[in-house]
Amino acid sequence: MDTTATTDFVHIYEPGSDAARSPLLLLHGTGGDERDLLGLGRAVAPGATLLSPRGKVLEGPMPRFFRRLSEGVFDEDDLHRRTHELADFVETARERYGLAQPVALGFSNGANIAASLLLLRPQVLAGAALLRAMSPFAEPPEADLSGKRVLILSGAMDPIVPAADVGRLARTLSDNGASVDHRTLPAGHGLSQADINLLAGWFAA
Ligand code: MLT
Predict the structure, then answer these.
(1) Which of 10, 18, 165, 166 has the most crowded Cβ, counting Cβ within 10 A?
(2) φ, ψ at 139 (rounded to 5°)
(3) Whole domain around residue 58: which residue ranges?
(4) Are 118 and 173 within 8 A, CB to CB?
(5) Strands (DSSP E) along 8-165, which ranges?
(6) Which atom from ligand 1 is nearest to the alpha carbon of 72?
(7) Whose CA is closest to atom 5 on ligand 1?
(8) What is the chain's pLDDT, residue by residue, as a tens digit (205 residues)?
(9) How many A from CA of 67 to the centre of ligand 1?
(10) What is the CATH number of the domain that holds 43?
(11) Per the structure, how many domains does the chain have?
(12) From ligand 1's centre to the CA of 150, what distance in Å?
């Protein structure tokens, strides 16, 4: 495992043992860091290479990937800027580590910036698993997402993500050509065993 800040983002790069697996871009939630999703990544995609940056925006002491004005209300100018900054980091890391196009595995704020990456810089990701995601843009841009697989896992009792909002995200991504599998689980904003089982099946397919 290599923890480094020599490129733009503090990040962990963990080379995998299974070259057939796409690398995973792990994107943590608010208040998390680059270590948060390593265990989840290893559990649901055993042997995959892991690339895990830490969000550069601080909300008090809590790292995030972009600014928000209040819970669920995003600073879209900052979101645009931070999405391109993260996309540039992934491209630099791919060259540096010799990586194939990664699949994002994002939770909450990390899922939201992964959805934004798909829409603003679709060439950066092969696909994405979005856990407790919301629609990042009030007016989503168009993007060519054909050939990209997206799994969205929502919680029926999630107090942060309204069902209509994530439904709009699923529609936006599929209207732009992605192959979207959206499941709603009997869970809240936190992850459950059902999330892990569905993720493992989706990554194995
Ligand atoms: C966000 O700010 O991205 C969402 O409200 C989810 C969160 O991080 O709490």
Answers:
(1) 166
(2) -120, 90
(3) 3-204
(4) yes
(5) 11-14, 24-27, 50-53, 57-59, 62-64, 68-70, 73-74, 103-107, 127-131, 149-155
(6) 5
(7) 72
(8) 444 444 589 999 999 999 999 999 999 999 999 999 999 999 999 999 999 999 999 999 999 999 999 998 999 999 999 999 999 999 999 999 999 999 999 999 999 999 999 999 999 999 999 999 999 999 999 999 999 999 999 999 999 999 999 999 999 999 999 999 999 999 999 999 999 999 999 999 9
(9) 9
(10) 3.40.50.1820
(11) 1
(12) 19
Q: How many CB atoms lie within 10 A of CB 42?
A: 15
- Distance, CA of 47 to CA of 176 (rounded, Å): 31
Question: Can you give the pTM of this predicted structure?
Answer: 0.96
In sequence order, what are the residues at sequence separation of 6 or more whose Cβ sits closer than 8 angstroms to the Cβ of residue 146? 177, 178
Query: For the chain, where are the alpha helices, taking DSSP H only?
Result: 38-44, 76-97, 109-120, 163-175, 193-204
